[in-house]
Design a protein that fits this description.
Alpha-Beta Plaits, 240 residues, four-stranded mixed beta sheet, Aminopeptidase, 2 domains, globular, alpha+beta, seven-stranded mixed beta sheet
Length: 240
Amino acid sequence: MPVYWLHDNVNAFPHPELAEAGGLLAVGGDLSSERLILAYQHGIFPWFEEDGVFYWYAPDPRWVLYPSNLKVHKSMRSIFNQHKFQYTLDTCFESVMRACASIPRGDREGSWISESFIAGYGALHAAGLAHSVEVWQGEDLVGGLYGIAMGKIFYGESMFARVRDASKAGFISLVKGLHQAGFELVDCQQHTRHLESLGACGISRAAFMDHLNQNQFERTLQGRWQFNQEGGIVISPGNA
């Protein structure tokens, strides 16, 4: 399959079915809010930047988590029962992104979260479409994750932990909150054993596209988020 070149002044993507076996679909373009929104609406996401060039992916299979299928194992239930961590939403989005960028990723040198990614997703956060989960021990930010929400789908991007189980606890809190808010799907993008242990599964690209087609008619919970007393996700007062 050919890899397509995106022009900076044209917000358009080839069909995801044209992606290579590894999921690579296109290179080039930019991380403007308009392009990022269009990408996620069509099952495409930017994975990394190299020499100022962005690489866009649409993998098959696509790893997702249906919120009702979330698995909370006994060890994690103990952490919640002990109130080991505290959880917030959208209080320090850029700090979460920079923390994700600082975490070593196996054999990969450096992080795919460049300054361009921080600026691009920061603009979506300002627009009320990108969100962060923060996990705290006292005043210390010890874990978190971020992603994009459109319609009833949350598109997860990256997570970090400075204390064992912090990112997992943040993810579980997020998924429970999304479930209460009526979200139907969490896009995990790629397979990891960590996410599989929490209930994620692989579905075909075609099945994922069906979810996206149905999602275009759903209302977006746009604005700054917070957890309510029941652990559900709502818009913060005055930030809709």
